[in-house]
């Protein structure tokens, strides 16, 4: 019986924490960090101010977790694109587009990222980003190197530089008045720079484009 009660308490605590983070995400995105008080988060999450402080030391800690959650969600879209079948570089193109476009389609992600440096500071933002993205970039480069898809380079150095490239790319998008146009420009630049890692003589597959939807009356449609 004690174990059952303990399990219920843990489930309730996890649900309360999730509600606090969901409320904070919405408030930070719409009102901004400075315009949001702990009491506002508690009210939106239907939790007392004391309950919020039970789960988080302060508002900055809440923001850090919101930032990580938002970044991880965008990263997952890139990983899903990378997992599809096809030429490795075509998959990388798809993943890059999914990652960059994630900050176009998700206004919350843009808002949180725009505030992150001011709220958390450069070192903390970089630490959180590295924990989320750097292992993925390093593993991808290691696989590409083993398969002969990139030149013989030191993976650690290459991973750090590619990580910096993507980080700065999304900052350009989130700061732009027209994120969609900025994403298109940034995508071209990022893929061109990454293409420099390809071994000499290996043809670039070119920019990946969405396949056209077949017209309803097209021959073979629906087969």
UniProtKB/TrEMBL annotation:
Pfam families xref list: TetR_C_41, TetR_N
Ranges of the DNA-binding region feature: 37-56
Database matches in InterPro entries: Homeodomain-like_sf, HTH-type_TetR-like_transc_reg, HTH_TetR, Rv0078-like_C, Tet_transcr_reg_TetR-rel_C_sf
Signal sequence, start to end: none
Keywords, comma-separated and alphabetical: DNA-binding, Transcription, Transcription regulation
Spans annotated as Disordered: 197-223
Record carries keyword Disulfide bond: no
GO molecular function, one term: DNA-binding transcription factor activity
Keyword Transcription in annotation: yes
Span of domain HTH tetR-type: 14-74
Gene Ontology biological-process annotations: negative regulation of DNA-templated transcription
Protein name: DNA-binding transcriptional regulator, AcrR family
Species per Swiss-Prot/TrEMBL record: Amycolatopsis arida
Organismal lineage: Bacteria, Bacillati, Actinomycetota, Actinomycetes, Pseudonocardiales
């Amino acid at each position: 019986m004690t174990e059952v009660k303990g399990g219920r308490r843990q489930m309730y605590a996890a649900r309360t924490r999730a509600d606090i983070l969901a409320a904070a995400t919405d408030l930070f995105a719409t009102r901004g960090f400075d315009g949001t008080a702990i009491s506002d988060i508690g009210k939106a999450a239907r939790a007392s101010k004391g309950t919020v402080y039970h789960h988080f030391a302060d508002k900055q800690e809440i923001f850090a977790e919101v930032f990580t959650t938002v970044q991880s969600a965008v990263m997952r879209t890139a990983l899903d694109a990378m997992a599809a079948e096809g030429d490795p570089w075509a998959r990388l193109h798809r993943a890059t587009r999914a990652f960059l476009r994630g900050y176009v389609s998700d206004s919350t992600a843009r808002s949180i990222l725009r505030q992150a440096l001011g709220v958390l500071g450069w070192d903390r933002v970089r630490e959180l980003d590295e924990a989320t993205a750097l292992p993925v970039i390093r593993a991808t480069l290691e696989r590409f190197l083993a398969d002969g898809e990139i030149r013989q380079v030191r993976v650690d150095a290459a991973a750090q530089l590619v990580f910096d490239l993507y980080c700065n790319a999304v900052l350009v998008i989130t700061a732009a008045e027209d994120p969609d146009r900025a994403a298109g420009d940034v995508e071209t630049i990022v893929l061109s720079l990454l293409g420099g890692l390809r071994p000499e003589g290996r043809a670039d597959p070119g920019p990946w484009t969405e396949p056209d939807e077949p017209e309803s009356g097209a021959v073979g449609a629906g087969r």
